[in-house]
Design brief:
The protein is of the alpha/beta class. It has a domain of 168 residues. The protein is 40% helix and 15% strand. The protein has 13 helices and 10 strands. The protein has a 10-stranded mixed beta sheet with strand order 3-2-1-4-5-6-7-8-9-10. α5 runs parallel beside α6.
Length: 329
């Protein structure tokens, strides 16, 4: 396969979104496979056939039109043509109401703590793909995003399925408002990382950003996840698998005082790793070509210095770093 044309998303990825199935989850999105009109059995067969066609086309240097200008295509070697990355971003339902949420147009800002079904075809389609030996079980990485996993009714069933099939790693993004026994199970088995976007170091700022008065509950749940992670036999590594995230939001938390409070609170509840990020989704969509604001650079530097002082590991969001290096959205 031509290394210049190789893309890990096209060759090894599968992304279940709210309205369709795609090959990738980047902002480029890639070709659409299906809009869930088929039965799970037929959907699985369609995925298999389209994956094979696209992979054969790439060998002949034929790239899908949706991918021609994608910045995420890289020159990389590959070890298998099986699925090694599955993205589950297929539901909107959430128990939080973040003002910056990219799904607010679809949800109209509504939220609920009530558990709801997402899409009953997903689980059955996954089982079919496993049946046809399309998944690299030992090297599979699963990413949960979209709405809130804590209020996705079939979430525990999906977790049990992946653990039973020896998944390598599961990444979770969560509001942290609803504690999940399924996530706890993954952490205790040393199989995953959960990231909670707290974006604040105080109840007041949290409420302004998240539109819910749940700061204390979220911090308590993060602490419980830290305890769960410490139960794994290799707890020296695993305790880094619970992460508090700080998205810099202009006019809300774009100051050193709030960043410092966030880091001190993270340290207090026993976290070992934190993440800082720009708010880039809206930026890329609405500020194309505009200069990256200076406060982003200042707060990244401040967080790095403060983490060194506190003994916290800092993860700098990779998309943010790419944008900051370019200097423009």
């Amino acid at each position: 396969m031509n290394r210049e044309q190789y893309c890990k998303f096209l060759i090894n990825g599968l992304s279940f979104h709210q309205k369709n199935v795609r090959f990738c989850t980047t902002l480029q999105m890639g070709p659409v496979i299906s809009e869930y009109k088929e039965t799970p059995e037929d959907l699985a067969k369609k995925i298999i056939n389209l994956r094979e066609n696209i992979q054969n086309n790439i060998i002949d240097n034929k790239i899908p039109t949706e991918c021609e200008n994608c910045i995420y295509r890289k020159q990389e070697n590959y070890n298998t043509n099986k699925i090694t990355q599955i993205y589950l971003y297929y539901w909107y339902h959430c128990n939080c109401s973040c003002f910056y949420c990219s799904y607010r147009d679809e949800t109209k800002g509504e939220y609920s703590d009530k558990k709801k079904e997402g899409n009953n075809k997903i689980y059955k389609t996954l089982k079919e793909l496993y049946k046809y030996n399309q998944v690299d079980k030992e090297n599979l990485i699963v990413n949960f995003g979209g709405g809130e996993l804590g209020v996705l009714k079939e979430f525990p069933k999906l977790i049990d399925f992946f653990l039973k099939n020896n998944v390598q790693h599961i990444w979770f993004e969560s509001s942290g408002i609803s504690y999940s026994k399924a996530v706890e199970k993954v952490l205790k088995n040393g199989k995953g990382v959960i990231t909670v976007a707290v974006c604040s170091g105080s109840p007041e700022i949290y409420k302004k950003i998240k539109r819910r008065d749940k700061y204390k509950k979220v911090m308590d749940n993060l602490r419980r996840y830290v305890i769960a992670a410490s139960k794994y036999k290799n707890d020296i590594f695993n305790i880094y698998n619970v992460v508090s995230k700080y998205i810099i939001l202009k006019g809300f938390n774009d100051n050193k005082e709030e960043v410092e409070k966030w880091l001190l609170e993270s340290k207090r509840i026993g976290l070992k790793q934190v993440e800082i990020s720009m708010e880039f989704c809206w930026g890329i969509q609405t500020k194309a070509g505009q200069k990256i604001e200076e406060y982003n650079y200042e707060l990244f530097d401040f967080a790095e210095k403060k983490c060194t002082e506190l003994g916290l590991k800092l993860n700098k969001n990779l998309t943010s770093l790419d944008l900051m290096k370019k200097g423009v959205y």
